[in-house]
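Objective 1b: paired records.
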Amino acid sequence: VQLQASGGGLVQPGGSLRLSCAASGFNFDDYAIGWFRQAPGKEREGVSCISSSGDFTHYEDSVKGRFTISRDNAENMVYLQMNTLRPEDTAVYYCAAAKRITTRERDYDYWGQGTQVTVSS
């Protein structure tokens, strides 16, 4: 089982990044995918999640209206389009897989290694 997050980098405030999560080794179509992030000195927190079919999505209030989650089941990929980035979005971003759409970390079975996003001028 592998979840590979990529697409992070350094961006100025107000800029955009698109994170990707490539999945392999499990029945991707049967799993919801969530994005989480962990800033230095802080606990990991949920950002967004999407159901296995892509029909349902959830966003935390801090990113609502700025981030968009999507998935391509044919390619086993999930994306997080992040617009209007703020310095407080700086964190390591992780993707994870769960049997149903949920915001609870403990419900996620598989985790990727994370990609660094830094928002700074």
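Objective 1b, second protein:
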Amino acid sequence: QVQLQESGPGLVSPSQTLSLTCSVSGASMSTNFIYWTWIRQPPGKGLEWMGHITYSGSSSVNPSLKTRAVISRDTSKNQFSLELNSLTVEDTAVYFCARAPNYGVGYDEWGQGTQVTVSS
């Protein structure tokens, strides 16, 4: 059974950097064609794709985030991470990690999500 679990701080200050980790169990991050993804949902808004890292280690980030977001992985721990810097209150959201079995298809596994609030 595949499980994804997000971890990280629930409250961060504006201008600081958010670091979130997604721990994966029941599947290898190096399995072919898998896209390991970060998605967020601000309050009252829809889901926003933030970016992904692939089975081969290449990453892609939503252009709307410009250079603020970095996605990386640690295959020895079977984890992937999101760093988002220069936080503003608009980054307040529930952050999810998810798995897509291939490019362009839907997500078949999701973490439960973690609330991140940006506030001073």
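The chain has a mean pLDDT of 96. Residues 49 and 70 are 13 Å apart (CA to CA).
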